[in-house]
Amino acid sequence: xxxxxxxxxxxxxxxxxxxxxxxxxxxxxxxxxxxxxxxxxxxxxxxxxxxxxxxxxxxxxxxxxxxxxxxxxxxxxxxxxxxxxxxxxxxxxxxxxxxxxxxxxxxxxxxxxxxxxxxxxxxxxxxxxxxxxxxxxxxxxxxxxxxxxxxxxxxxxxxxxxxxxxx
Length: 167
Prior knowledge:
The protein is 73% helix and 0% strand. By secondary structure, it is mostly helical. It has one domain (2-166).
């Protein structure tokens, strides 16, 4: 368990250090149908958040935590693919935030968002490394999955939800 935790901590710290040392380049490109890159990032973050809710629901069904629903045979596939899609959507959002803007701390919301963004990929690393370790997945996998979900929701609330409420 120590190796996944150290790897996750290293990822989080490395992202934070890089982001704080790197001056954002404000990557400029246009995506058809969107006013600006912040709008694209916000919609993608929202999509990752919705997929995270699918992850939570499918995990609760898959592990029998919702007794009223008998787990369908395809629930594992839904869980895996919604997680993969959420990750593949979150990566470009994280790249834009980290490379295009950098680690910011000019107000409390932005600082919390920067910290959550770095932490998200570290905790995700822990979850993926634990997934392959026999014996640990029984108790730590739901804890790691819950942490990834909570952090992702926090990151979406401090970015996309804030953006949409302000615009």
